[in-house]
């Protein structure tokens, strides 16, 4: 029965992949293409598609088929999270990222990273040494976070804030994964995090200064300037 059940699920998944229309993306020009630290493509459909539920169903089947092994399932969760990041990338490049589509993608991203944490904890609960698994998951999440930071700089202010808020959620989950790493790996991770925090702070400060300069220039441009007659009036009154 178990074999038949798995065969049935696998058959449905294959059928779904065949029937789901393949998305053809426009060829990127050098100016529109975004380079990320992860090398992963999006799912078959984007969150902007009315048939996106089919892609979600496909991913749920992947997780179900991976349920026999918690370590493998944790990695599948992060693979799906990588797809979500790639979907954000494509939507930005296509200049078609509605707020709802971004919200759906970010929610799925956070959910799958949390799913990886849950599977890691479950594997540890069975008495397994999960130090290597935790380090592998952490490396993947670090690459995904860096990709999100890059994408955040390519969006408008509202999307930027949403992505950065999602990064905070991911960091909170990641800290629990780091707790399961070997001491040496954890120390290296803490050094990398501090270095990244300093780099981000410097970039934010530079961006804030640039924004302030732009706003000041705009303010100067719209501020009324005294007319020649007005200056003459003031000068005569002083006499």
How does this structure look, described?
With 239 residues, the chain is mainly alpha-helical. It has one domain (13-181). Helix content is 74%, strand content 0%. It has helices spanning 2-19, 52-65, 70-93, 99-125, 131-152, 157-178, 183-222, 228-238. Helix 3 (70-93) runs parallel beside helix 5 (131-152) and helix 5 packs antiparallel against helix 6 (157-178). The radius of gyration is 25 Å and the shape is globular.
Distance between the termini: 105 Å
H and E string: HHHHHHHH
In helices, the fraction of residues equals over 70%
Per DSSP, what share of the residues sits in E-state strands of 2 or more residues?
A: under 5%
How many domains comprise the coordinates?
A: 1
Secondary-structure map with pairings?
Layout: H1 2-19, H2 52-65, H3 70-93, H4 99-125, H5 131-152, H6 157-178, H7 183-222, H8 228-238
Helix pairs in contact: 1-2, 3-4, 3-5, 4-6, 5-6
């Amino acid at each position: 029965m178990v074999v038949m059940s798995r065969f049935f699920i696998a058959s449905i998944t294959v059928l779904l992949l065949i029937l789901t229309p393949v998305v053809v993306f426009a060829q990127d020009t050098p100016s529109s293409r975004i380079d990320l630290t992860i090398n992963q493509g999006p799912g078959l459909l984007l969150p902007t598609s009315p048939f996106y539920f089919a892609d979600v169903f496909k991913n749920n089947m992947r997780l179900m088929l991976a349920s026999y092994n918690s370590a493998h399932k944790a990695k599948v969760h992060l693979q799906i999270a990588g797809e979500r990041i790639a979907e954000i990338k494509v939507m930005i490049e296509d200049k078609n990222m509605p707020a709802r589509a971004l919200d759906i993608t970010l929610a799925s991203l956070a959910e799958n990273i949390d799913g990886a944490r849950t599977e890691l904890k479950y594997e540890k609960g069975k008495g397994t040494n999960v130090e290597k698994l935790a380090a592998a998951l952490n490396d993947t999440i670090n690459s995904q976070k860096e990709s999100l930071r890059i994408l955040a700089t390519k969006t408008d202010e509202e999307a930027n804030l949403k992505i950065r808020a999602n990064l905070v959620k991911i960091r909170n989950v990641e800290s629990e994964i780091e707790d399961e790493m070997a001491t040496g790996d954890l120390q290296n991770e803490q050094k990398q995090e501090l270095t990244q925090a300093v780099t981000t702070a410097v970039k934010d400060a530079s961006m804030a200064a640039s924004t302030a300069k732009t706003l000041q220039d705009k303010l100067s441009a719209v501020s009324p300037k005294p007319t020649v007659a007005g200056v003459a009036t003031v000068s005569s009154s002083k006499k």
